[in-house]
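Q: I have two molecules that I believe assemble together. Could you output structure tokens for the complex as a whole instead of separate predictions?
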Amino acid sequence: MTDFAATKAMFHLPKGVIYLDGNSLGPLPKSAPNRVTKTVQDEWGEMLITGWNKAGWMAQPSNIGDRIARLIGAEKGHVVMGDTLSIKVYQALASALEMRPDRKVILSDNGNFPTDLYMAEGLIGSLGRQHQLKTPAHGDVADHINEDLAVLMLTEVDYRTGQKHNMKALTEKAHAAGALVIWDLAHSAGALPVDLAGCNADFAVGCTYKYLNGGPGAPAFIYVAPRHVANVRPALSGWLGHAAPFAFDLNYAAGSGIERMRVGTPPVLQMAALEEALDIWDMADMADVRAKSIALCDRFIAGVEASCPTLKLASPRDGAQRGSQVSFHFDNGYPAMQALIARGVIGDFRAPDIMRFGFTPLYIDEGDVDAAVAIIADVMGNDLWDTDEYKQRSRVT
Amino acid sequence: MTDFAATKAMFHLPKGVIYLDGNSLGPLPKSAPNRVTKTVQDEWGEMLITGWNKAGWMAQPSNIGDRIARLIGAEKGHVVMGDTLSIKVYQALASALEMRPDRKVILSDNGNFPTDLYMAEGLIGSLGRQHQLKTPAHGDVADHINEDLAVLMLTEVDYRTGQKHNMKALTEKAHAAGALVIWDLAHSAGALPVDLAGCNADFAVGCTYKYLNGGPGAPAFIYVAPRHVANVRPALSGWLGHAAPFAFDLNYAAGSGIERMRVGTPPVLQMAALEEALDIWDMADMADVRAKSIALCDRFIAGVEASCPTLKLASPRDGAQRGSQVSFHFDNGYPAMQALIARGVIGDFRAPDIMRFGFTPLYIDEGDVDAAVAIIADVMGNDLWDTDEYKQRSRVT
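A: Yes, here they are, computed for all two components at once.
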């Protein structure tokens, strides 16, 4: 059983703050400052260039990848770190499209995080605009899976509503139609159990600064299924993905496995912070995290609905259909969220009208939920929310 | 006049080490540990998600870009940070090729750093293999510029020999033939004066962990000439390059200027360290750096040639033709460099037979050069270098 009091004690949480935005940027592991200082002073400062081997910097993208693999149900040796999530989306999509050269449809949904769609758009432009990107509503995705489909590319958990896709069912349906599937785990990794191997996912990507608590600018990860990796052509064929980076050959030869998805020099200081966050994750069982996450979300929904009739639930009521966040619709959501932040309840606003709150059992408990609900009830009880001033503030953002 | 004693005092240089590998990874600015700690504890720890605005993280890629612009002769507002140099090469090349749709030749040279060639190869693969990448020898590049050429893509300073290209002359010749030019400044930024605007360069890219001393994994930069930027289609069209990233539109609309070359979340901890390094650069005049760099390199060449007849100069003898490094050919270069490193003289080895030493006036002075020469003479005087044991060690690397 995961000891959530112990994990909570390992984070620095500012006084007077109830942090319900770990789904945007996780908080600081208490051990991270010393570790980063050690990396800066003892590794960079003392080892200089030899740190790449002596301090193990060069191997970190794979070593950290293995630690994340455990949290997302990936086979060991098939996840590697680097770049940003946007770049990893591009890498996965470029490789996947080449594996289905006769098909020209990419299917996503209109709730996908925009950068995934933008990166797809950019790639389509480079590939000569022969591909079509379809973005139906969340519930209509399955109906668009047919034998024209090259790649299904979805974020498992909708960043606005928290609504989950059925990863296993959609992957099966796409495979039955002969398509490949890329899962973006931005709001899944560390939020709920993921079983990439069990779902037969082809590719997956994700970031580490949200639920994984790796810090601002922490690197992204990419997964390629073992059955594919030897045949994947890396479109972003950088030297650290080369079979022999230090041979300095003029021609590219892809590394033997997931290493080929590395591109350039990894961010050593960011990786140091991320490793400290993963030490806390080593104390956690994802099934426990999920059970507590659903309980916290349910408690929050009940509390807010009982006290704030103007807020309309935007997330699924059924915990099994949600990620680890709860969202409400509110016309004046932007200034209302600013008012909450001023009172120490940090969530975030997503256009056009979503007030979003993330629940992260590693450091948020029932007491935090109850305290947050009380403050939200107090702030939302302010009848200013219907005045023109607030409506105006809402519109200009 | 730059006060090099003052700049040297601002770096941490380990005891017993003469660091001639700042062309691979620059040393630690003494102020960087405190700054990084402040960013971790006071910004990430206390501000959490609000750090993106309150601590200015979101604006850093452009603000830092402006500080680097001064060092490379770029117009203010036309350099932005992010990703790795490999990714920035891909971005620049993808955009440039689209600006010359009827031409299918990319010209580089066989001394370019391999990742530039690999990224080009990867892009050519995605574009349908219609383009040809030519890599003649350094001195033959100009002869290959003709009206078939789409993009000339060169690293100004050869990473092995330190030999410089003539940026202005080659850019002019390429433009006269109707081609575009991308300059990789990996071994130029902070090494010698660069005048991107004066040379009419179209694109430039570079890294910040070498001469600029930004630390392991520091982000790369990209420059797009003011006359082009509004017409550049970003192939890597990430959300932070969008005209309105937080509007979360489903369709991409490129940002108004160089901001469109941003992709995903920037590495906040790395940027903090880099800013400290740039504070030292603010004390330096590039003309002074260049004059001292040439003097140090000349002094090193004279000293080594006088004492080590087995080492054959691989760099141009004329300082005006060199970057800020000196390389020697030596068959047993790999074990010889290991022996030097064991004695505290840190340079590096580049296959097949290059012993490479970087000279960085901000923290290397004449006394360091003389001390390094004495140690090299002592180590190279060891007659073991001709034995089979060393030849064997050299071959297996």
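A: One point stands out. The first strand of chain A starts at residue 11 and ends at 12.
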